[in-house]
Design goal:
39% of the residues lie in helices and 16% in strands. It has two helices and three strands, in the order βββαα. The protein has helices at 38-57, 67-77, and strands spanning 11-15, 25-27, 31-35. It has a three-stranded mixed β-sheet, with helices on one face. α1 (38-57) crosses α2.
Length: 79
């Protein structure tokens, strides 16, 4: 049986370091960021935005990108 290649259709970031009780949610067409401290939430949102910008420069949509390519871009922008 041939395995069908799965496509990434969206990204989800979850921050777990919230101590102030504030509920943070940022949503867009292909991603959602929930939770986290203000700093963590902002950093995750920026990482995802830069990842999408890089994909666009490469002429790709999220669904067209390889899993490893997306993971590498996220890693690159999260440092």
């Amino acid at each position: 049986m041939e395995r069908k290649e799965q496509k990434i259709t969206g990204l989800l970031g979850i921050g777990l370091d919230n101590k102030d009780g504030h509920k943070r949610v940022t949503q867009a067409d292909k991603f959602a960021i929930v939770g986290g401290s203000a700093e963590t939430h902002e950093r995750m949102t920026e990482t995802v935005m830069k990842t999408f910008e890089d994909l666009k420069r490469r002429g790709k949509e999220l669904e067209e990108a390889d899993h490893r390519e997306v993971a590498d871009l996220i890693q690159k922008h999260s440092q």
